[in-house]
Amino acid sequence: MAFKKLKYWFNQELAKMLSDKILNEDSNFPKDKFVSTVVGKIDTLELKDRVELIADAFHTHLGSSIPENIKILVTILGPENEKETGMFTNYYWIMPIAKYVEKYGLEHFDVSMNAIAEITKRNTGEYAIRPYLVSYTDKTLDVLTTWSQHKNKHIRRLSSEGVRPRLPWAKKLDLFIENPTTIIPILNNLKDDPSKYVQKSVANCINDILKDNPEIGRSLIEKWNVNPTKERKWIIKHALRNLLKAQDQWALKIIK
After folding, report:
1. pLDDT digits (tens, 9 = 90+) for 13-46
2. 94-129: b (≥16 Cβ within 10 Å) or e
3. DSSP 144-186
4. 8 A C-beta contact, residue 115 and residue 29
5. C-alpha 95: how far from its chain's center?
6. pTM over 0.90
7. How far, in Å, are 1, 12, 96, 120 from residue 6 at the CA level?
8. What CA–CA distance (Å, rounded) separates 136 from 226?
């Protein structure tokens, strides 16, 4: 679906669908109050605000225990996404659940990490993970480093997409703009990943690094360019796309 039209999918019908899913897990969930909270405000909002409104409605109408609320929301996620598709496809409706974990789960690290892993198997946790990287940098990087070797391609992708210093539609991660060296081990684990979905994310992360820390980015690429696999060659070329477009001589030499 077109991005501009996506916001219209977050409406009264979606509120009803989500509430019905929750009712299957929690018979005390106040469906009518939840739906009325959403319907009263959503039509005047843009996409991100619509998603947050629904997340806030979860917070208002679910129970008082955030960990229990997160667990309930995880149970309604449905089957995992087997395809290499992102957030703006069949699983768009999970976006408010990811926003709930992002906004309200910060004090419940382990439960939230499990939820983000489950969310990203269907939609994406690349936005939800970012406050955790700021508040629990080392702890979250340890999780993402482990995830970079996960059997699930969506989770492996999240390990690089989540640490992108300049991820579109997200707040910049200034800690990695200032010094991206702590995310290099994650990228190293993914440099020969067989999934094109993961490869693109790794390339985009390196492209971000090149914008603010060209020496670090170029050094990484030069190391990777020694006897590279076909997967690594693709990542390198895609990471260098802006430099290649600018006819940068170093980049042109790398891809010869």
Report:
1. 999 999 999 999 999 999 999 999 999 899 999 9
2. bbbbbbbbbebbeebeebbbebbbbbbbbbbbbbbb
3. HHHHTT-SSHHHHHHHHHTT-TT-TTS---HHHHH-GGGGHHH
4. no
5. 10
6. yes
7. 7, 14, 13, 19
8. 35
